[in-house]
Amino acid sequence: MRFSIHIAALCLALVAGTAHADETPKEGFSATASRLGTQWSNAAQEVLLNALSLTGVKYTYGGNSPETGFDCSGFVRYVFQQAASITLPHGARAISQLGQAVTVDQLQPGDLVFFNTLKSAFSHVGIYVGEGRFIHAPTTGGGVHIVDMNDSYWAKRFNGARRLPVSAQPPAEFSAE
User: Fold this and answer.
1) Contact 19, 6 (CB under 8 A)
2) pTM of the predicted structure, to 2 decimals
3) Does the active-site annotation cover 6?
4) CB–CB of 52/129 below 8 Å?
5) 11 is catalytic
């Protein structure tokens, strides 16, 4: 557990652009998260670690596993199932109906961010990682990677954000069955 905490701190420092070559995460995950102004649950940490571990997995339309590749909602569904035992519905639009709406200034790592990429609201989804960045499976650009929400493409297409109650026992309404 201590090892995963240090890996998470290093990932967060890199994502936030605060790590220096000679800097190691001596202070641990909690101090790093506090420095970024964020309270993180263990489940949210697991969501981020799981998402970051999938960086580079190729895009595949309808894909829902690291072996076959991911589309955007397949990536989000896989991460939340693996990290938090939450089964989400298929499709970005369906996922956008869950949880609690949050504003951009309320975003916390692990929140879901939605975009209009197909001339249709809530047609793309990603996972917020902090410092204005999110991780997603784009249709172009290779595979799963982190991008800046402030880039003009994403800023123009932002539709909103949702926070899921990340816990060990998912609420019944999140199940796709």
Assistant:
1) no
2) 0.74
3) no
4) yes
5) no
The closest alpha carbon to 34, from 113, 109, 135, belongs to 109
Rg (CA), the chain: 15
Ranges of each domain in the chain:
1-37, 41-174
For helices 42-53 and 72-84, angle between their N-to-C axes, nearest 10 degrees: 130
Q: Catalytic residue among 11, 20, 90, 124, which?
A: 124
Q: From the candidates 6, 20, 90, 136, give the one annotated as an active-site residue.
A: 136
Question: What tokens appear for 126 in the block?
Answer: 């990603």
Q: Determine how β-strand 69-70 pairs with β-strand 124-130.
A: unpaired
The rounded Cα 82 to chain-centroid distance in angstroms is: 13
Place of tokens 């557990």: 1
- pLDDT tens for 63-73 read 999 999 999 99
Which CATH number describes the domain made up of 41-174?
Answer: 3.90.1720.10
**Which letter does DSSP use for residue 159 in this model?**
E
User: What's the pLDDT at 40?
Assistant: 52
Selected catalytic residue, list 6, 11, 72, 145:
72
Bridge pairing between strands 145-148 and 69-70: unpaired
Whether 136 is a known active-site residue: answer: yes
Distances (CA, A) of 99 to 49, 71, 96, 113, 121: 21, 21, 8, 12, 17
Angle between helix 42-53 and 2-16 (nearest 10): 70
